[in-house]
Amino acid sequence: MSRFFEKIVRPVLFQLDAETAHEFGVMALRLGLGGSRPSSHSAEQNAVFGSIERFGLKFTNPLGVAAGFDKNGLVVDQLADLGFGFVEVGTVTFRPQPGNPKPRLFRLPQDRALINRLGFNNEGSERIAERLGYAKRRCVIGVNIGRNKDVPNERAVENYLQTFERIHDVADYVAVNVSSPNTPNLRDLQSSENLEHLIGTLQEANSKLRRKPLLVKIAPDLNDAAVESIVDLCLRMKVSGVIATNTTVSREGLLTLSVEKLGDGGLSGKPLAARSNEIIERIFRHSGGKLPIVGVGGIFTAQDAFEKIAAGSSLIQAYTGFIYQGPSFAAEIVSGLAKILKERGFSNFDDAVGSAVR
User: Fold this and answer.
1) Are strands 63-65 and 315-318 parallel, antiparallel or unpaired?
2) Is residue 168 part of a domain?
3) Mean pLDDT score of the chain, rounded to an integer?
4) What distance lies between CA 254 and its chain's CA centroid?
5) What is the CATH number of the domain that holds 203?
6) Which single residue of 60, 134, 224, 271 has CA 20 to 30 Å from 166?
7) CA distance 193 to 2
8) How many structural domains compose the chain?
């Protein structure tokens, strides 16, 4: 971690409420204060990450920014400059919405975690699509889509389809978010019947347009049978991959006292790591390694990243670790991961995927 960020910047930012600090960080990136793009990767990184291809897209490295950090596509190019291999914008809804009442984002420093109940606050699909049309495309850009809060699940498919069609041209891939705990009843869309209808409709539209990879983001609070049912459905419906996982509603094992006073919301960060890895491994085993997995939840170190890859992740994402550790986070994770793979005798990145399971 950058000593300057650790000793100077983070203590100042952590004096602010979490959402204000986040907005300040995004503004700093927009002003070019985050850092400059590395002129080149090390020979070690090039050797390990030089040929990562997933669902027809090429990635300079496997580490991405999870949805929720850049909700409106404001700093995609700047995040690429920090060393991320891809950025997932959103969650984007068809119409703009303000999200849930504030305060709605909380730090748990003892647990290296966050709780959020932001509620898909975003500027809406039309404005975000227009903005992404001007991106310099220094990395792969995914767009995470969700349901407007005032739309009941009975009309959710139409709402998702409207968003999908609007952002389709500017997204390298589209992630379907049916797993946020902060939009009422959204997680009900993970049921087999509901998910099949939703994915079937989106894939039909996808086939009429220039086909883009379609991924599904699932919750960590599903039981094993539900996870396996989703895997079966994704394989049958030719979904390009699964993002595992979203935030959890569990508060089990936290060190933070009186955490219940913070109220509802999804927990992210270190407490999610083990459960995320369990689900990644189950998806990898059940699919026989045939369904690409984007592993997310609790990555703070290169070792954390490696554990997700060894469990079966084809790509990885981070959010909370980036918030806590600052602008040097991506470069440190990527370089550290390259060293771990070399030390363990992997000649390339793909050989490491699922190595703990196989």
Assistant:
1) parallel
2) yes
3) 92
4) 23
5) 3.20.20.70
6) 60
7) 48
8) 1
Handedness of CA 189, 227, 272, 145 (dihedral sign): negative
> Is 125 considered catalytic here?
no
Domain with 258, as residue range(s), is 3-349
Q: List, in sequence order, the alpha helices (H) in 147-238.
A: 156-167, 192-208, 224-236
Lateral strand order in the sheet of 266-269: 105-108, 113-116, 266-269
- Asked if the structure places residue 356 within a domain, the reply is no
Q: CA–CA separation, 242 vs 3, rounded Å? A: 36
Other Cβ atoms within 10 Å of 339 Cβ, number: 15
| Contact by Cβ (8 Å): 236, 262 | no
Q: How many CB atoms lie within 10 A of CB 98?
A: 12
Q: Which residues, in sequence order, are bridge partners of residue 57?
A: 54
Note the residue count of the chain: 358
Which residues, in sequence order, are CB contacts of 176 under 8 Å at separation 6+? 145, 160, 198, 199, 202, 214, 215, 216, 217
Q: How far apart are the first and last CA of the chain?
A: 33
The DSSP bridge partners found for residue 315 are 294
Cα→Cα distances 153→148, 176, 197, 216, Å:
10, 14, 12, 17
0.90 exceeded by pTM: yes
Helices and strands: H and E segment counts in the chain: 14, 13
Report residue 10: phi and psi, to 5°. Answer: -60, -45
Taking only the tens place, the pLDDT of each residue in 89-114 is 999 999 999 999 999 999 999 999 99
